[in-house]
Amino acid sequence: MPKLKFLKAIEILDSRGNPTLQVTAELSDGSRATAAVPSGASTGSHEALELRDGGKRFLGRGVQQAVKNVNEKLAGRLLNKEIKDLKKTDKAMCELDGTANKAKLGANAILGVSLVLAKVLSVSEKKPLYQFLAEHYGFKPDFSKFPRPMFNVINGGLHADSGLSFQEFMLLPTQKDFPEAVRCGAEVFQNLLRLLKSRAASTLVGDEGGFAPKLRSNEEPMQLLAQAIVQAGYVLGKDMELGLDAASTQFLKPNGIYSLALEGKGLSAEQLVALYAEWHEKYHLHLVEDGLAEDDWGNWAMMTKTLGNLKMRVVGDDLFVTDVKRLKQGVEKKAANAILIKVNQIGTLSQTMAAIKYARQHKYQVVISHRSGETCDTTIADLAVAVNADYIKAGSLSRGERLAKYNRLLTIWSEENG
Ligand code: 2PG
Ligand code: MG
Predict the structure, then answer these.
(1) Relative to the CA of 388, which of 57, 109, 199, 355 has its CA 20 to 30 Å away?
(2) pLDDT score of 418 more than 90
(3) Tell me: the pLDDT tens digits for 60-88?
């Protein structure tokens, strides 16, 4: 068994120009790999802690302390040790941290090491990362069933200054063939560009590569998507459905009312759920993520009952934060029927896998997701294939850090089905 001979983190920049960690590892057999850590903007308050330096450097967002924690504390614990069981190494890092939310060493520090150790072991075993991950964590991928992409082509909320309360308006192609699904999404994206140009609306993109025009209402993006789909020669409801990440914690007011700024009106949880149901009828809205706020458990059950009856996916992101403990609560309360998985919400790959397994056991659908602050690291594409995820959400069809994930999936597809 190879030993860990080299482990080094440095500070790099993510897609928003904010610092994040890149970690490189080398084993005694010469295998070498590098991984980078993503970062969110609309973060759930129950996520593991992302360690930032504060102070003047990078407006307080530096990660020098997290880098130091990798290079001194985590390297001190792992160097010259055999690396073979990732559950053990992840556990060792969590124990060294000793806090419930990785506050001492930083979830960004721990995740960087967790990811790079998986990558370097896959190199050592001469296996593609997705195959290594599947075997290591006991999944049996079915390569004929690739995750369905969720293309976030109109950006709002904290990801753009479009003024939209809802954060992500997504295209969900129905094609089973992954390259066809990508083509369909890309064609609609290009038609959306034309449509916006014809209306003299802005075609600048937001954090996740979706357009961010200033619109009059939160419904207008749904109308635009429906139109772009027709213009591209596709049929809404047949070739394509729609998805929405409301990220609603961001517009919940202390009085329990969800405030839609563009419309100048506030909605109760029941009214918001009724709106999703209406959009299901009108626009084939198939999936709603964080349709209600992260601690609104009681209303989540009401939402899942209502939308679940329409066969819609009700996805918990900030609600579950990739944490088995919160997911267990969700299963007990029948709060949702799908979970969004983000590796940095929990901070190790092994805990991420545990959440995915628990979700599967309880018939929850699994969505593997990027963060709004990304790098060109493509680990989540391999992860999605390894666990046979139902969906993958990696942003729009522009911006290199988003396309890196879809292009990696196209590569895996061609290796396995080509
Ligand atoms: C989300 C994500 C990713 P962020 O809310 O699902 O799209 O955004 O990374 O800003 O939390
Ligand atoms: Mg979300």
Answers:
(1) 109
(2) no
(3) 999 999 999 999 999 999 999 999 999 99
**Nearest 5°: phi and psi at 106?**
95, 130
Does the structure show a pLDDT above 90 at 1?
no
Probe residue for ligand 1, chosen from 16, 42, 245 as the CB with the greatest number of ligand atoms within 8 Å: 42
How many angstroms separate the Cα of 375 from the Cα of each of 156, 194, 380? 21, 28, 11
Q: Is the pTM of this model over 0.90?
A: yes
User: Residue 261 Cα, ligand 2 centroid: separation in angstroms?
Assistant: 19
First-last CA distance in the chain: 34
**Which among 82, 77, 84 has a CA at the least distance from the CA of 109?**
77
The three-state secondary structure class of 22 is strand
- Structure token pair of residue 94: 């969590």
3-state secondary structure at position 34? strand
pLDDT digits (tens, 9 = 90+) for 30-68: 999 999 999 999 899 999 999 999 999 999 999 999 999
In whole angstroms, give the CA distance from residue 123 to residue 115.
13
The tokens describing 204, both together, are: 């600048």
